[in-house]
Amino acid sequence: IGQLAGRSLLHLLDFTPQEIEGLLDLAARVKKERIDGRRPQRFQGMTLAMIFEKRSTRTRCAFETAFGEEGGHPVFLSTSDIQLGGKETVEDTARVLGRMFDGIQFRGFSQRTVEILAEYSGKPVFNGLTDDFHPTQALADIMTLREAFGTTAGRTLTYIGDGRNNVAASLIIICAKLGIECRIISPGELQPPADLLDTVRSFAAAGTHVSSDPADAAGSDAVYTDVWVSMGEESQQQQRTALLQPYQVNASLMQLAGPDCIFLHCLPAVVGQEVTKEVFEGSTSRIWDQAENRKHTIKAVMLATMADPE
Ligand code: CP
Ligand code: NVA
């Protein structure tokens, strides 16, 4: 994956299946290094700007620990502290950060912001979640699927709930790239945008199926859900709860999905809403592995783009 040097990760549409598989192989390698107690220092002397417009536990901690433990210096910048589109344009902030840092992580609202940061900083920029996409999450999700089943091509991942959010979009893309059958089960109003479906169907090795019937989860290798109300959508709480109630992941849905089906959730979760406590805490749940894998996949992305993975 030498060809990834200097690249940004804004969304996964830009990456080939081989590049994605290469990142997942590297993530498995760095995970094993840690388990074996090795502590390479591949980010020594490097700095990473980490801009957050929205809150984060996993993404912030994954970037910060992955970069810091290998000798890099991550700098946390919340938008209540820095000028970003406030007193200074995003373009100008990007040019300044590009002169000072080796890379930039951005979590926030607009996908356009992360694109401008990449365009104007001239450094690798990593999308740590926008309204539209959550690409580093999707890498960790597929790493978790690999660990559970050995292989991923030909597997079936069912995402049930809000099919229009960032997590759903990135799952649709990564599954299409890697030949994983992706089923999106959502009420009509919350199904994925047609342009995204057209895009992935133009290159998909496996199908992307959209339906509004929870029974279509039958025969899945993984059932995945996310919160019903994403960050920035708080005003829609009531309406979403009414709309999505039939799409809760509970024991009967998991039973219908199949005996070896695993449960995935990007977290944070509202337990009792999109998933019952029984499933969340149950034996089929792989959510803590999934959260841990955020760190290994994010480290792999930073190594491949900013440093020397060897
Ligand atoms: N899954 C995820 O991105 O978690 P955080 O919002 O805590 O970063
Ligand atoms: N869809 C959620 C994911 C959080 C990691 C949100 O955007 O809030």
Automatic annotation (TrEMBL):
Aspartate/ornithine carbamoyltransferase Asp/Orn-binding domain mapped to chain residues: 154-304
Species name: Spirochaeta africana (strain ATCC 700263 / DSM 8902 / Z-7692)
Binding site for L-ornithine: N166, D226, S230, M231
Top class in the EC scheme: transferase
Domain of life: Bacteria
PANTHER family: ORNITHINE CARBAMOYLTRANSFERASE, ORNITHINE CARBAMOYLTRANSFERASE, MITOCHONDRIAL
Protein name: Ornithine carbamoyltransferase
One GO location term (cellular component): cytoplasm
Main location: cytoplasm
Domain named Aspartate/ornithine carbamoyltransferase carbamoyl-P binding: residues: 7-147
Family: Belongs to the aspartate/ornithine carbamoyltransferase superfamily. OTCase family.
